[in-house]
Input
Amino acid sequence: MTKGYKPQGARGRRIGRWMGAAAALALVLSGCTAQATGNTGESSFILSSDVKAELQAKKLPLIQGEQIAMKEQVRFADLLNVREGIVLYNREDGVYRTSLASLEQAEKLTDARAEEVSANGRRALHNQDGRQYVGDLENGMEYALDDVEANSHWVFADAAGEYVIGGVPGMIGLIHVTTGQAKWLNVKERLYKGENGYSYGNPRYYAGDIYVDGSFDDEENAIYKYSPEENKVELFLDFPGGKKRDSINQYRFLPDGKLLFDGTYDRQNGLFVYDPQTKAVTALVYGTIVDNLSVGVSYSLAPDGKKLLFHTRDENNHHLYQAELDGTQLTNSRYILRDELYASVSSLAYWNEDSDSYYLKYVPPGGTVESIVSYKF
Output
């Protein structure tokens, strides 16, 4: 039984502008190349002219890779995880597990639908009878988050599901699932002076510290770092473009301590890397302008932190690329999709542990997963 405080809300924000009436997910153009550079202030990703010409000549949908049709109807949000050929998904009466090799056979794992599954597919968060639980899908163990309200919002803080992170308005908590040890940051006391309000997004956990992005007392958007052991709060990254112009969406730490994030930095929309040692922000990919609106870049990072998928848009289509991340540069980039997407790639992609292969949901209009496409890097 874990011990925690009573959270409410702290709802996650929708990332990007990708939801809507959508067409099929497609994997395309094995062998086509793109050129990428990583210089701050320059256009950091350039699609070569021969690839552009070839893309325009193709008809949609374009699919490459092993496409495996689903045997039953599963809604987009109910497909929870695909990893090492194993699929986890919700039915009305609980979480089920099946294999891509034999989708006709499904095993029931829990009696409650999961809100989220850890990235490694081992643990599931769910709400039952007014309480929050974390269940181990391998050994059947279940851990109750004691004194946590049913309508609160918690997410896994790490890939293995060892920690959950969430909070009430003005308070952020981090709970170790099996021991119940809790750490929390009182946002009202440490970051808010009580003058002009505050807002913040989903917190992150990295290397023992809690990170929160937000704006406090009408100041500029920024990311703050809280070190529980030192009981210390410090500015980690500020955004120079002003609160109305700069914002952050999804951010993840890389193995070397750099921060990968998408959003708007210094009034430029795109995908960036921040080096806390040099304080430099490097643009990897800039966003686009569609119908006079700035459209961002979404991404999905591999477990090793060295490979990624990223997702851009133009007036006609969505575009998906895979690339390797070398410091502050993209290398060995390849164009793999031209089509409409049902959601951002961060919600469509699932990586295998080797980081050399991944899966994508194929979701036609209507939001039902039609198939899973297996792809190798």
